[in-house]
Amino acid sequence: MDKFIIEGGVVLKGxxxxxxxxxxxxxxxxxxxxxxxxxxxxNIPQLNDTKVMNKLIVSLGGKVAFEAGxxxxxNRNISNFKAPYDLVKTMRASVYVMGALLGRYHKAEVAMxxxxxxxxxxxxxHLSGFEKLGAKITVEHGYxxxxxxxxxxxxxxxxxxxxxxxxxxLMASVLAEGKTLLRNAAxxxxxxxxxxxxxxLGAKITxxxxxxxxxxxxxSLKGGTYEVISDYIEAETxxxxxxxTNGKITLENAPAENLQAVKEKLLETGAEIKKxxxxxxxxxxxxxxxxxxxxxxxxxxxxxxxAQWMSxxxxxxxxxxxxxxxxxxxxMHVPELNRMGANITTKGNTAIVTGVRELSGAPVMVSDLRAxxxxxxxxxxxxxxxxxxxxxxxDRGYESIEKKLEALGARIKRVK
Length: 416
Ligand code: EPZ
Hints:
26% strand, 2 domains, UDP-n-acetylglucosamine1-carboxyvinyl-transferase, Chain, 4-stranded mixed β-sheet, elongated, alpha/beta
């Protein structure tokens, strides 16, 4: 398993190009199952997760090629309707093929995804939504089976805002008969992107980006070319990298309109953020001011930035309170940051972070993708050497992170 070795204390400077969004690419690749015509997807990040999604589609009988950020998918001859446990257990987003297969073929079988390190991660809302559209759901031998004679549009209220359920129900309903309403739908930029892609293929979706999405079923979808949005979580991670190293980083290809929540908080810490043409420039200060956060569905402060924010607050000039409201166990990075000299205590879903003057490099272990990003950020700031193990979690969601950081001056290397 690869490790990162970071010599901390370098002020990061320069430009970084933000990659395509992982959490948009995954449902969009899955959605190519809804048509037998060719789809060309651009700006797809080279990540383990996007590779796993491609592999899953191929295992169902689809044809997928992935080169230089472009996925070419042609899913004319789908012959298998079962997503196997060995793929689903490595990537929970595999569950997206369920909505797409059900939508086009009225049948799908997916291994029941288990809980994961950040929480239980139920999929009850996906399944009850499929039932409202007319599917019959059974669970046997660890697999969820959905079958329907036909799917019919329905009025569906999601009692928790869920990105996954919104995406899966969108895919299941685009080819259903009549109109579907998704109420209390997720408003994340990746949901909007999925809707734009589906509309490119001929779907009739309105209201994407609001909490009520309306889908007028169509009889079939065509092929098309689509460019996936860039990754706002990656962009925000680099913004925090500038802030935590007292550096100055220019983000290229960043989705400026999606960065608001983290931008406002960074301004509170004293960082400076400027638009420079289409680029965004972030300049840190030596000791950031403390700033509290409550994670929330978009447009709130993203749970996928909570861990990185904690690293920044760990070197702030005071105490801050971080409330994690989405995932019940998303504090696995706390003991690791404390090993680096941070002063963080947790109670339930609240972390109290008291800033310390400096962090000190230490051997630490990554538990999940964003926890990994927080440890990299802490390592960049810390005095001395930080050795980060289990970086495969980072490879799931950050494209060439060490190369991008190296280009900004970081002393980071990957060792086998
Ligand atoms: C997506 O996960 C993201 N993953 C996660 O990013 C992200 O943390 C999360 O949305 C929240 O923004 C992808 O997009 C691939 P949810 P998802 O369904 O869809 C509850 C990362 O680091 N819930 O929006 O699985 C659930 O327990 C990853 O990139 C139900 O109760 O999340 C949670 O509290 C980690 N029943 C809340 O909703 C359900 O059926 C939000 O979950 C579904 C969800």
